[in-house]
Amino acid sequence: MTSNIRRQLTLFVEPTDAVTIEQIRQEFNPRQFAIIKAHVTLCREEEIENLEQVISNLSMLTQTQQSIFIKFGKVARFDNKKGLLLPATNDNKEYYNLRRQVLSGLIDNPRKQEAHITLLHPRNSICTDKIFEQVLEINLPTKLKFKRISVIEQENGGQWKILQEFNLTNRIQD
Fold it and tell me: What crossing angle do the helices spanning 51-61 and 93-102 adopt, rounded to 10°?
């Protein structure tokens, strides 16, 4: 039997910033909460198939790349209203620039992937109108700082594991 292994690059939300987000995920999406912490996906598996080159890019990048900030808007439903996410606003140039640098030499023009934090994943939860209304009332973060890039792996739909982390240099908040 062959294993189904997925790898991604992820920006995990700092634990102190994730309290409210994780409370929502734990209450309304316990399966997703159990397999991965709150995060923004930086690069998906098909983008990082040449992991050796990606890790080389990350090693070079993290010598100078500062931690990044992502701004978020209001919660939104997706996938026929089954899922719920906290979408980034359109002005996240740092995020798109980081993707471009990580994928340098692999993908000349990376697709414009919209940054977001999934609160309820439609694969293992359902966002009802009642849940949506409840979450709308919760004060969620509008700007988060990300200090590291994590290479993560999932085998056969199980819990995601961190394989390697690359710290970004610190800076004073804008």
Answer: 130
137: left (phi over 0), alpha (psi -120 to 50) or beta: alpha
Q: Is residue 75 within 8 Å of 135, Cβ to Cβ?
A: yes
Distances (CA, A) of 105 to 25, 36, 61, 89: 36, 29, 13, 28
3-state secondary structure 111-168: CCCCCEEEEECCCCCCCCHHHHHHHHCCCCCCEEEECEEEEEEEECCCCCEEEEEEEC
Domains of the chain: 5-167 (3.90.1140.10)
Mean pLDDT split into 10-residue runs, the chain, 174 residues: 89 96 97 96 95 94 88 95 94 90 89 93 92 96 96 95 91 50
Identify which of 38, 21, 44 has the alpha carbon closest to the alpha carbon of residue 140: 21
* Contact (CB, 8 A) for 65 and 98: yes
pTM listed for this prediction: 0.92
Q: Would you state the pLDDT for residue 20?
A: 97
CB-based contact 115:88 (threshold 8 Å)? yes
CA 34, 38, 43: angle at the middle one, nearest 5? Answer: 110
